[in-house]
Amino acid sequence: MNKKIIISILAGGILLSGAGCKKFLDVNDDPASATKVSDALLLSGVELTTAFSITGGYPARTSAFWTQQLAYNQAGPDWDSYEVTSSDVNNTWAFDMYPAVLQNLKTLESQANAAGHKHYEAVAKILIAYNMAVTTDLWNDVPYSKAFGGFGNLKPSYDSQKDIYTAIGGLLDAAITLLGQEDKTVVPDAKDLIFSGDVDKWTSFAYFLKARYALRLSYAPGNTPVQQAQAALTAIAKAFPDETGNAAFQFTTGAGAESPWYQFVQNWGSVVSSNTFINFLKAKNDPRLAVVAKPAENSGEYVGRVIGASLTSPAGSVSDVGDAFNAADQKINLGTYDEQLFIKAEATFLATNDIAATQPILKEAVEATMQRFGLDPSSAAVQTYITANCTLTPANAYEVIMYEKYISNFETLEAYNDWRRTNLPKLTVVQNAYLGMTTIPRRWLYPASENNTNKQPQQPGVMTDRVWWDTKQ
Q1: How big is the CA angle at 208 (ends 204 and 211), to the nearest 5 degrees?
Q2: Residue 142 phi/psi, 5° resolution?
Q3: Is the Cβ–Cβ distance between 185 and 116 less than 8 Å?
Q4: How far apart are the first and last CA of the chain?
Q5: Can you tell me the distance from the alpha carbon of 405 to that of 342, in angstroms, rounded to the nearest whole number?
Q6: By CB neighbour count within 10 A (0-12 exposed, 13-18 middle, 19+ buried), where does 119 fall?
Q7: Model pTM?
Q8: Paired strand residues for 142
Q9: What is the tens place of the pLDDT at every residue in 300-342?
């Protein structure tokens, strides 16, 4: 088995609870008499696959390696030194994203529309938008408008990333409209494993995504940072009110129901802290260091592995990943309030160039991150850190904002997306890079299965090429 293709999960082991002020999911379907999968079961299955295989899966792991947050303790070149081939990405495309997530979401969207289940249809649209953004951000042009014809179209053409982002915006706007309409056709249910059917929280999440994607296109051809920043700020006004709005999937300690990071670190091994990341945190006396990493067993010091080193680091000589970030019952976040605050801080800076207005937003964002990481944001250690490292000036503002967001986005795909978009934080190519690469990869190759069965002009791709929105030099 290829070393990058691992891990399974038993969906039946997930037992979750949650509550909200307005809910919509249906408990009145009789599964024994059903001729199709109910909206509720389609949704819970898609949410599980999204959280496990996409948000916490191979895309996130690649991001953590390529942005040098984590390292793979094997002699380079390896995964962390960019050895990711077209075969390695097959599962994400051909098993997870298109059939298990997007096709099921399109089915949910269609059958909910036909039944008049407006809120189910809205959630399907939001999750299609979320997952299509992941897909196009990894590969650039991908199938979308012709992708779901089943046996009627087994070789769909690719849509441009520009057109896909236009479609994403339309999906989110339509979802917000549907969520604002009354839906008496269904009753509350807990099979929604993200928000337990809370309409207000799904609406806030849609606005959060609008803000995220507005900034994603800050430097896309035809856009300006000011224009996109203003769009982000407009969306944020209706997004998460606080950290209780976080879009999170809660995993459990049940056998087979553990978080993807737990299963990855425990079952695969050799995943350790990166020297780059450890040194970033140590240089700033960052209190988060003790959360994201463990002291090396042999020395009691925080020591990261140098990515691409010619020899494997001896056991106990480098820092393992911190317990909070490979816990069995870890939450996998599709979006957080602290990320929203960083979006607001960046957007405020880009739109106004006003340091005085940006500074308190950044402080709040860092405090929110510290709290989510399990630290007391009012503690002397945190406040000392903020005073020493988060004071903005016209010369350093953008770099400080994006560095802090990079730490906040530990173990997420957003760290890689932001690095490509802004080239911050400043990272250099690792040792013994795969095929002698002299730049960090900026996209994935198209999967081998697609290259072989659905030949398109964009294939196979080059890892050092940029996606459409990635233009900042």
Answers
A1: 140
A2: -145, 165
A3: yes
A4: 38
A5: 6
A6: buried
A7: 0.93
A8: 159
A9: 999 999 999 999 999 999 999 999 999 999 999 999 999 999 9
